[in-house]
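Field reference: sequence -> structure
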Amino acid sequence: MTEFIPTYRWRLSDLDKVQKNGLKVFSTFACGGGSTMGYKLAGMDVIGANDIDPEMAWHYKLNHNPKHYFLEPIQTLKKRADIPKELFDLDILDGSPPCSSFSTSGSREKTWGKNKKFREGQAEQVLDDLFFHFIELAQRLQPKVVIAENVKGMLIGKAKGYVKQVINLMNVAGYDVQLFLLNAATMGVPQKRERVFFVCRRKDLALPELRLAFRAPVIPLRVALDGLSKNGQDRSSSMHLNLWEKCLPGNNFKSVHPTDGAFNLAKLNPNDASRTLTASPGNVFHWEKMRLLSTEEACAIGSYPLDYKFKSYKIGLYMIGMSVPPLMTYGIADQIRKQWFKGFTGDAAMLDSNNAGIV
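Structure field:
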C-alpha cells in the first residue's frame, strides 16, 4: 500500500488509505477526538477513549465508533476494577487534561485549587488536579509511552512549579519526560496554535530521547480556505461592524477601539495562517465580510476532517477550538513510530536537527 500522507484537508474516509502498524492507543479527555484522529492518521489503533462530557461522548462515538468508551471522570476511571485487559498493554496513553487554569487569558492563579466547571453541563471539579489523576492512571496502566498536551501558559510564571510537579510524579510513575513546545503552523496546520507536549517514555524500555522538529511552510488562509463553503454565520448587523471595517486583517478590534475594548475579537488575515481558534466560536471574523467561519473553513483551519459529523454549527466550532489539531498529533505520533517503534532512520521529511523544538 502506498503511504498516505495527510494534509489539513482530509476526510474520515481517508483513514481507509492508512497502513496500519498495530500500535495501540487509549485517549483520555478525548473531546471530539482531535488527538484520536492524529494517531489514526499515523496508522495506530485507538482502542478506546474517556471524557466527562455527554455531548463530546455522543460525537466521539458517532464519528469514531470506539471499542471501549468511558463516560466518567478520570478520578473514577483510574479506580475501576473492570478496566479491559488490553488497556494494560498499551503502546500510548494520550491525554489533554483541561487547561483553562493555565491559559494566559483570564485569572490564572486565582482559579488554582478551586472547583470550577470546564463548560456548561459538567460537574464542578478542581481542574488543575486533573493532570495528577491522569498520571495515576498512567502509573496503573504502565503504557510504553505517555503523551499529554496542554497550553503554552504552563511554561510561564508560577505555572513552571506545576510543570516540575508533573515531571517529578511521572518519574515516580516510571517515566522519563521530555517537554516540547510546538506550533501547529509549522506542522502543516493553517493555524498559529502553540501547545506544550509532555512525551514520556517508560524507563525500563531504555528508549533514546525523542528528536522532534517541524518546519512545514506557513499556509495562508486564502489558500487554506479556497473553494470551501462560505456559509459562516453573518454578523454584519453587529454593533462591532464599524470596528471590523476599520480593523486591518490580522489585528484585534482593540487596535481601533476608542477605549481598548473588544480585545477578544479579531479579523483574520488572508495572507497568513489563522490565529488560534478557541472554544469561543464568535471571536474571529472573515476578512471579506463580517461573518464567522463556516464549518468547512473551521475544519480546514483545525485540520479536522471535512466530513466530521457535528450535531450543530455552534458545537462544531466549539469542538474544533477545543481540540488538538489532528495534524499536530499525527506529526508527533509518526515520529514516535519511526524513532521508537520502527527504528530511527533520520530521513523523516519534517525532521531538522538544527531546529529541535525542545523546551
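Note: Residues 103-108, 344-359 have pLDDT under 50 and may be disordered.
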